[in-house]
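User:
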Amino acid sequence: MIALELHPRIIENKDWATVLFIVSFGLIVLTRNLFENRFHDFIRLIVSDKYLKIYKESSQLMSGFNIFLFATNLISLSFFIQIIFHHLGYGAKTDWVLFVQLFTFLTVFILSKFLIEKIIATTFGIEEIIEEFNLQKVSFRTYLGLLLLPITIILFYNDLVSNSLIYTLIAILLIINLLTYLFSLKIYQNLIISQLFYFILYLCALEIAPYYFLYYLITKFRA
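Assistant: Predicted structure:
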């Protein structure tokens, strides 16, 4: 007799991810239609500083424009981190539970950081510096998040992605983030110098410490 060994056929469900990607593009289209002029200036951010000059008031940070694009970026970044976890062997990229966990963690982390920043800025009396500085960072990181979305979609639906490509993308994102951060520091250097001591405390407390603890948790988890 011929021995037959049956193996279960595992079919990955990607429908939930497709819906979220459609929602992301829907938010972008909605933002473009509701804030047409602002969106046009925003997509030219990489070649023109017109957007930063027009929308530099702190009230713009919580506008509908930023909220819609913030939600899009959260979806894109959560997928990108999940893809990284998948290639490192810490989860499946089609695991919707893992996505919800990552999305929730990023949302809580970013909003908590923003709230603590407001408290510390008020305590140190440097609200003007921090609000303008944050608006600058949010603008560049939102722009970067939109560029990351199509890349994330390609990575998600492509099963032949190599680890070297993933590491290269991570390195590029970190370098771009560093450059935009330094660019923001240069723009507001006069304001920063006038409150240099408090700004250094702010950097240590909210721009260095949180990411250090994240790195510690990730490396501990990998161990």
